[in-house]
Specification:
Elements: E1 8-15, E2 18-19, E3 21-24, E4 27-29, E5 37-39, E6 44-48, H1 55-62, E7 70-72, E8 84-91, E9 116-123, H2 130-138, E10 144-148, E11 173-176, H3 178-190, H4 193-198, E12 200-206, E13 214-220, H5 225-241, E14 245-251, E15 253-254, H6 261-267, E16 268-269, E17 274-276, H7 285-305, H8 311-323, H9 329-339, H10 343-352, H11 367-379, E18 386-389, E19 392-393, H12 400-409, H13 416-422, H14 438-497
Parallel strand pairs: 4-6, 8-9, 9-10, 10-11, 13-14
Antiparallel strand pairs: 1-2, 1-12, 3-6, 4-5, 7-11, 8-12, 13-18, 15-17, 16-17, 18-19
Helix pairs in contact: 5-8, 7-8, 7-10, 8-9
Pfam families: PA, VSR_TRX
Membrane topology: Single-pass membrane protein; Single-pass type I membrane protein
InterPro entries: PA_domain, VSR_TRX
Length: 498
């Protein structure tokens, strides 16, 4: 499968006078005429139109956002099955420009249909984490958070990382350069109320969908509790996808040939060529490396045959529950016996990955670890644990439902269980597909006709029966009157004959 772009962020400024419309990697200016032309951008592209604004403000907003936006993906609530688009109006609080303090409730200006949602811009820094900023703004019902970097460096490689308290955040955020952010903030400060009322942004968070199979990787080590917790929880979601996804575990190592001998003897192999990045108190780095290799061997075996691919997940779940993060050879052996795996075969796989029987020699190589290191350099995120979807780093919370949502977004056509599991959220300005299908209308009409027919039929039968009963009563009454009139005459004629 080709190496695709997986995440792009789009942001559109529209100002009655200035309308920024996004497509990919191109800058197209529709007006004024002297600025018309097409320019290639790195990630973002804007189309600009001017009707009322003066040229200085046009120029300011034209350059207000460049191609340096990086998306923090939080998919837990916002459905990415069809690219998320949101239109918003920009807000800024000079008294809380870092967003580190809680915001007081604000009555955001919205349009009649609720299509224009509040976007908020804050600055990086202030002694608080990205998560704190986003959560403070989520608490006052902001839709999208724009964070301005605190330096002039490019932001493509900045990861809006979780400080450990990011669970449950349900709004997206993005980071832009200091230069671009300053231009946006300056505009908000200088603009009149009329101009602020005209200002609108559109943010679209999209993931490339090159085909109908998603590849995702997890970078971790066997001693990392957070990663093991995620694997244990995510097993049920991976099973839903089946062959529609390809999951690959990757393990992180580092090199330290100049470290002290005690460290090399406990935590490294090949004289510091392969070291564990997360040594524990209860086990050495060498034990961690061995377990990483055992897990890799199990994965290659069960995923290679594709007959029992979920055995790897079951193994991780077992060793994590029974040994937590202290997964040594004894723990692994017990798991092999419990799950019906061949421990000696796995150990042989680990040994065969080394080029020499003496793992301490500086000339010794390990083909599995070398492959992981090369892949890390090319596609790794630089942090662990981390998830890479379609060869792009996933920047959201490492939580099962959030990652499930992100993977669903990677499909060209999302499976039905994505929608059924996540539900749907579609902004007001998008076509929600509401309304009744024509076939349903036809069925409703036919049902109404049938019901009316039954009602008329029953009414006519009831009316006919009632008419017959009334006629019978009248006939009986007439007959009774006839007999009543005829009897006196007969009795009178008999008395005369006597």
């Amino acid at each position: 499968m080709e190496k695709y772009q997986s995440l792009k962020s789009m942001i559109l400024l529209a100002l009655l006078g200035i309308n920024l419309e996004l497509s990919s990697q191109r800058l197209q200016i529709l007006s004024p005429t002297q600025l018309q032309g097409k320019f290639t951008g790195k990630i973002l592209q804007f189309n600009i139109r001017s009707d009322q604004m003066d040229q200085s403000k046009q120029a300011m907003l034209t350059s207000a956002i460049s191609h340096t936006a990086t998306l923090l993906q939080e998919y837990a609530y916002i459905n990415q099955l069809n690219n998320l688009k949101q239109i918003g109006r920009l807000y800024y609080d000079a008294d809380n420009h870092y967003g580190c303090k809680e915001f007081s409730h604000q009555d955001f200006q919205v349009d009649y249909d609720g299509d224009i949602t509040p976007f908020y811009i804050v600055e990086r820094g202030g002694g608080c984490s990205f998560v704190t900023k986003v959560r403070n703004l989520e608490n006052i019902e902001v839709s999208v958070v724009i964070i301005v970097n605190d330096s002039d460096k490019e932001v493509e490689d900045i990861v809006l990382s979780d400080d450990g308290t990011g669970g449950g955040i349900r709004i997206p955020s993005m980071i832009i350069t200091k230069t671009d952010g300053k231009k946006l903030i300056d505009f908000v400060k200088r603009a009149s109320q009329t101009e602020l009322d005209q200002l609108a942004l559109m943010a679209e968070f999209m993931m490339e969908k090159p085909d109908n199979r998603v590849e995702y990787d997890l970078w971790f080590t066997s001693s990392n509790d957070r990663a093991l917790d995620f694997i244990t929880d995510f097993q049920q979601y991976d099973q839903k996808f089946g062959d529609k996804v390809l999951f690959t575990p990757h393990y992180v190592f580092w090199k330290c040939p100049y470290c002290e001998k005690k460290y090399l003897d406990n935590d490294c192999y090949a004289n510091g060529k392969y070291c564990a990045v997360d040594p524990q108190v209860n086990m050495t780095g060498r034990e961690i490396i061995q377990e990483d290799l055992r897990q890799k061997c199990i994965y290659d075996k069960v995923y290679g045959s594709n007959k029992n691919r979920f055995m790897w997940w079951t193994y991780i779940k077992y060793v994590h529950y029974n040994c937590y993060s202290t997964i040594n050879a004894d723990c692994s052996k017990n798991a092999h016996q419990k799950l019906g795996l061949d421990f000696q075969e796995t150990q042989k796989c680990v040994a065969d990955s080394f080029s020499d029987s003496n793992w301490d020699l500086s000339t010794t190589t390990n083909k599995v670890i070398d492959s992981e290191i090369d892949y890390w350099k090319q596609y790794g995120s630089g942090i662990f644990p981390s998830i890479v979807i379609n060869n792009r780093t996933y920047r959201g919370q490492i939580e099962s439902l959030a990652v499930f949502n992100a993977i669903c977004a990677g499909f060209e056509i999302a499976p039905n269980y994505c929608q059924s599991t996540l539900g749907s959220y579609t902004p007001d300005f998008l076509d929600k597909g509401d309304g009744i299908k024509g076939s349903v209308i036809v069925l409703i009409v036919l049902a109404l006709i049938f019901i009316n027919f039954v009602i008329v039929y029953c009414y006519r039968r009831h009316a006919k029966r009632e008419l017959q009963q009334n006629m019978q009563v009248h006939i009986e009454s007439a007959v009774s009157q006839y007999f009543a009139l005829s009897q006196p005459k007969e009795s009178k004629s008999k008395s005369y004959q006597k």
